[in-house]
Amino acid sequence: xxxxxKSEMDGRGLRVAxxxxxxNEVITRSLLTGAVETLTRSxxxxxxxxxxxxxxxxxxxxxxxxxxxxxxxxxxxxxxxxIRGETxxxxxxxxxxxxxxxxxxxxxxxxxxxxxxxxxxxDQAINRAGGKAGNMGSHAALAAIETARLVQAIKxx
Length: 157
Description:
alpha/beta
């Protein structure tokens, strides 16, 4: 039987940074609320959660990388909302945010969670920020806890 590496869904003692895009703040603030509530409900203390606001989703990766490189955080959650418009701006921003956030985790070894909504319209975004589809900020927080604990389990053998 192969050895299975498991992680705990217990946030106690974890230090988490959350980077939030101000653009579409009506959506991103709901994502942030969902993330913070989930983190605290999972045992992460308020004083162990840092929140940094950036202008938009394009700026998420650089601030996430800066936070990850400090060595102060067990995970970094990136929250944003890119809603398709009539121009190709959506594709550029969504693609760069996705690539950049993925690169941060790979380059730093700190779990960096993609909590950026990429939707066709505002209704879809509302549904994913606490509406019918749940709160993707909350899902991102759970992913951060699980991934941070898994990384710790791997490192401690």
